[in-house]
Amino acid sequence: MTAPGTYTWQRFSARERMARFVVFFGFAVALSVSLRTVEVIPEFLWDSPTQIMDLLKRMWPLDYAYYPGGIHQALMETLHIASLGTLLALVLAIPVGVMGANNIVRVPLLNWLAKLILVSSRSVNTLVWALLFVAVFGPGALAGTVCIGFRSVGFVGKLFAEALEEADPGPIEALTAAGAPWTSIFLKGFWPQVAPAFWGIALFRWDINVRESAVIGLVGAGGIGMVLDTALNLFHWDRVSVILLSIFAVVIIAELLVTNIRKRII
Fold first, then answer.
1. CA 216 → CA 145, 173, 206, 220, 228, distances in Å?
2. Is residue 152 part of a domain?
3. Which domain holds residue 244?
4. Contact indicator for 203, 261 with CB cutoff of 8 Å
5. Is residue 168 located within the same domain as residue 114?
6. Are 237 and 58 in contact (CB under 8 A)?
């Protein structure tokens, strides 16, 4: 028992402890329901180390001779898809981002429309976009390029709009007071402030698109993913290992390249 006049220190109040209990209990219920829904088979889990070792044995030794004729061209196509898709996204994201910035376009309807476009682009997964454009343009690099472009608009446009909204209003007010036209206000007032952020966003998105371009080929949108899908379907595991190694090398090189360029820009 606590002596009269003394106090017992507790980290959380009774209300906070109850709230924490409700949250943890909710997580436990959600986890148990999820486990029942996905129907995890314990036998498969116990056997997974053996299956992984068997798969690694099939992937060794690597078929390096397959790279010049079967991988290199598809890998270059993947980089082209990522680059052209990013360029398309930049062209589309600039007007949408400007329209979504409240301090530039003061029309709520246009702001809402821009946000709708940005949210719609981000809410649809890359593979879903790829399936849609493969159905429209047919399998190949064109579908992959348009897929990457439309998927990237939401990312680039949202961050660009936020950078515009965070711009210092001082130069903008000075140009406006001097009677400068809107184009001069944007190019001389807004753009110098947001240019480093914009190019940093573009580089970061290109880095992401290099990774995503390697995946969308699994549904027929061109690039190295189509070669990987063919090798998987034919059980050519020695070729699969070379393809995965090539993708890993390209991603690492792209990461190093983007990091060095960002250091010079920002």
1. 10, 46, 15, 7, 11
2. yes
3. 66-265
4. yes
5. yes
6. yes
Q: Is 240 found in the same domain as 119? A: yes
Our CA dihedral for 89, 90, 93, 94, rounded to 10 degrees, sits at: -160
The answer on 147 and 45 residing in a single domain is no
**Number of domains into which the chain is organized:** 2
Q: What is the pLDDT along the chain (266 residues), one digit of tens a residue?
A: 455 656 666 777 778 888 888 999 999 999 888 877 777 777 777 877 888 888 788 878 887 888 888 888 888 999 999 999 999 999 999 999 888 888 888 888 888 998 888 888 888 888 888 888 998 888 888 989 999 998 999 889 999 888 888 888 888 888 888 888 888 888 888 888 888 888 888 888 998 898 888 888 888 888 888 888 888 888 888 888 888 898 888 888 888 888 888 777 76
Residue 224 near residue 135, CB atoms below 8 Å: no
The answer to whether residue 9 sits within a structural domain is no
